[in-house]
Amino acid sequence: MRIAVIGGGSSYTPELIKGLLDISSDVEIDEVIFYDINEEKQKIVVDFVKRLVKDRFKVLISDSFESAVVDAKYVIFQFRPGGLKGREKDESIPLKYGLIGQETTGVGGFSAALRAFPVVEEYIEIVRKVSSATIINFTNPSGHITEFVRNYLSYEKFIGLCNVPINFIREIAEMFSVNLNDVFLKYYGLNHLSFIEKVYVRGKDVTEKVFENLKLRLSNIPAEDFPTWFYDSVRLLVNPYLRYYLMEKKMFKKITSHELRSREVMKIEEQLLEKYKTAAEIPEELSKRGGSMYSTAAAHLIRDLEKDEGRIHIVNTKNNGSITNLPDDYVLEVPSYVRSGRVHTLSQGEGDLFALSFVHALKMYERLTIEAYLRRSKKLALKALLSHPLGPDVEDAKDLLEEILEVNSEFVKLE
To answer: Is residue 77 scored above 60 in pLDDT?
Structure first.
């Protein structure tokens, strides 16, 4: 089996390889091939990867996307169009307009999506011609890109993945001293905008115990966390990214009082790349990079797609009846049954109206942004920005859009 990793120069790559090494005793991996437009960075990372892998499977570098994905059974997208400099602009530009600067939500996610769409569109067309690979996507904004590929490019074997769901499951498993596979969540929403309505451990509903445990832990509430009355009223566990929507003023203040996360990550990445040049083991600094359990989510999904044992994973895919009061074609982040090399969403009944109010609003924003890209339309782009709960008001929208388009002109042009 050949696995292609697109964005091989990412400082996350060694963690991904650790995950693939972990499953290599369960599934046969013949070779992992890397492709990245930053050849210098990729060489440092892949040389380190070779020391980690030793002779467990072949580690190769491709000089083109097409040659990387030919004959690949799985393709992992983990590239960042525009690099960390692009992320820095995504975070800094909104702040000038009094808006939250964050790489996947609001204005930051909007500009990141516009940069990603043309690259993803090109890559999907190449995969369609030369391969029948299943694509696992981590490129942000992951859910928005999955909506683009599944509903607009019609490539069905495309699965969006995030580390947030598996970290939720791990936390619950630790709380009840059980294995990850013993936990099932009634989980739904969008990537970075998800909700947990019910928690089951070994088939038993333990939701109330989880809420009681949460109250105990919140006795000393950090500034950015939700108070106990919120959980008493809403009765949903929420994705940490909901802080940006429900604590907008507080989160804006926090962001503006600290160094931009992109600049912190640039420093961490510089340190990691230096260590990768000589390291024999994964450096401790990688834990500061973020994305914990990312490799586990990707590797375990590949393992279970191959072994066909009917495991459940929370992924970004079409709703297809998982939440009955949402349209079937919405790409959602939901539990899915892995069988016959595919993911099949599990029926969870109706979703909570509080949660669905966010899902509908953000889904319309996602689709307006995609339409703006496909039609190269500034008017639709303005509608998308104005529709987003974290977007600009009418006075700033046009100036903000022009600035975003100017700094991202290498990737996209709208008229």
So the answer is: yes
